[in-house]
């Protein structure tokens, strides 16, 4: 903690010099801007990173009238931060005690995944199996202190009952899977085992970094906004601190990572055209047209001459598709509204330099997957018209949904402008506390945790 105090003192001094600057991690367009911008961001971030943990383990709860009044005025985000700091202290304590021992995959999965045996199935009884279940129960017990782990002493105490994979163990496994974004089936296979083998020290570090991220977000907390947590693959509509709706999303694959930034939804388009990006047009579609000259016609794609909205069309037979080079195309590909349009029935626009937006998708099968990093960077939304409905209710425009449904059913492209622009935040939180106060973790799908943690550590060591 002495190092923490020194880092905190130093960063607070730096913070005072920069107290008028509002900073956050982001993207940069030039090397010069990257250098100065990152330095500014780290000054504030480092202070936020270390200060919350000074004395966190000694926090004492109280029920005095003043404390109760403060609690009633505490925002949902502040409550979440408090829960995350408590979890940080919990995992740090385990790490300081030597951490938990990684589970041996060869031992645990030797006879297949561990699961609750069906009533009519034959139970596999072997020393290896009992040893595997004992190791599992011991590991779960370190994180779930309510789990009875007395069976783990069976080898030392003859009177003890050996560990079995019973309903209680299965229930804890399911809860663990839910908190880590895994398939919730109560079965310990390779993915669940990998999550179980993440050290407590690493979880504490993950929480520390994300506490910083949430503290930097706190200034953006407003009456109503849309929040997309990229690693969680989830969108939330939040109004006056209450989550009104939660929907699954598909985000960019690692090679087309969805950026983190904040903006305002200004409008949405029902039955949108897809203005195909130049990269996709030249790298992905051109080779398909070269192989199949009817590809554009079969997929309802037209070529507009001078812009995406130009009414003059170009004959695809006049273009050398086979020798087209990446990013070298003088015209504009547009996919017209239809059932196979990748934007589906609606898209929500918040004009930004990343050309990222939220939209429907005809590929609904992706929402059945636990890993939903699969798009070209835009956000595909499950049940997309529910967001329009929430916007109509929030902004008091009762007739809006009637007009939206009419346009959708007529299959005509129509744009609806919001009465008031709605804030939207695309965040990258790999750890957070949910509405039940339980800490969740997700994979660092874009390897941003490592980058950001390294930057914070470098500043804190100054």
TrEMBL record:
Keyword Protease part of the UniProt annotation: no
Residues at the catalytic site: 359, 378
Q: Where are the transmembrane segments?
A: 42-60
The biological pathway it contributes to is:
Cell wall biogenesis; peptidoglycan biosynthesis
Instruction: Give all residue intervals belonging to the L,D-TPase catalytic domain.
Output: 224-402
Pfam families according to UniProt: PG_binding_1, YkuD
Going by the UniProt record, its keywords in alphabetical order are: Cell shape, Cell wall biogenesis/degradation, Membrane, Peptidoglycan synthesis, Transferase, Transmembrane, Transmembrane helix
**What domain of life does the UniProt record list for this protein's source?**
Bacteria
Q: Does the keyword DNA-binding apply?
A: no
Annotated family: Belongs to the YkuD family.
What PANTHER family does this protein map onto? BLR7131 PROTEIN (PTHR41533:SF2), L,D-TRANSPEPTIDASE HI_1667-RELATED (PTHR41533)
Q: Please report the name of this protein according to its UniProt entry.
A: Murein L,D-transpeptidase
Species lineage: Bacteria, Pseudomonadati, Pseudomonadota, Gammaproteobacteria, Alteromonadales
